[in-house]
Write a structure and sequence with these properties.
heterodimer; A: about 120 residues; mainly beta; four-stranded antiparallel β-sheet; 11 strands; about 0% helix; B: about 110 residues; five-stranded antiparallel β-sheet; about 55% strand
């Protein structure tokens, strides 16, 4: 009955590799997000999709590419991993407010701890 | 500095005491939300307060919002060891309405048994 799930939970890899993190939500939400949380717990939004359409793309290196095959899934692919990519990555989902404005609460996945060696 | 700054950065109290955390922000908002993050877990939504509301309660939680001072506070009454976690405020800014929440840097609360 997990609302927002992410796989894998832990990912340890070498610099230069390509890896993907998967996210799925079963809440029927229309908006999904990827956040990066650094070692100081600062949470920064990376991407947001609404109904499979990209609506937020922060200044994230183009090595990061999100893909939303449908409203319930938002995957994150990372090419040529670097040491600085080590962090916890969170997927989240929400329903947009009436008329598309204002946010309701966001539901977060358990996170994927990425360690680049 | 960041939209949504929590104060203090860390707070340590005894079980049974009240814990107060503050959040300041810079722009006009539609709503402000508080989240809790237990160690090694994702964030969990606690409470949402809209810009036209001044106070909201949920169980042992009380949130206030002062839009003139651009600040909010989260009060946890009769704290328990299980309340130990990081607490984040997040704002839905009017200028980016409907597009994002901006999270603060969090307050680490430790409740000692």
């Amino acid at each position: 009955d997990t609302a927002v799930s992410q796989t894998p939970k832990y990912l340890v890899t070498q610099m230069g590799n390509d890896k993907s993190i998967k996210c799925e939500q079963n809440l029927g939400h229309d908006t999904m997000y990827w956040y990066k949380q650094d070692s100081k717990k600062f949470l920064k939004i990376m991407f947001s999709y609404n109904n499979k359409e990209l609506i937020i793309n922060e200044t994230v290196p183009n090595r990061f590419s999100p893909k939303s095959p449908d409203k319930a899934h938002l995957n994150l692919h990372i090419n040529s991993l670097e040491l600085g990519d080590s962090a916890v990555y969170f997927c989240a989902s929400s329903r947009r407010g009436p008329g598309g404005g204002t946010y309701n609460e966001q539901f977060f996945g358990p996170g994927t701890r990425l360690t680049v060696l | 500095s960041q939209q949504g700054e929590e104060d203090p950065q860390a707070l340590s109290i005894q079980e049974g005491e009240n814990a107060t955390m503050n959040c300041s922000y810079k722009t006009s908002i539609n709503n402000l939300q508080w989240y809790r993050q237990n160690s090694g877990r994702g964030l969990v939504h606690l409470i949402l307060i809209r810009s036209n509301e001044r106070e909201k309660h949920s169980g042992r939680l009380r949130v206030t919002l002062d839009t003139s001072k651009k600040s909010s506070s989260l009060l946890i009454t009769a704290s328990r060891a299980a309340d130990t976690a990081s607490y984040f405020c997040a704002t839905d800014a009017r200028e980016t309405s409907g597009s994002r929440l901006t999270f603060g840097e969090g307050t680490q609360l430790t409740v000692n048994p």
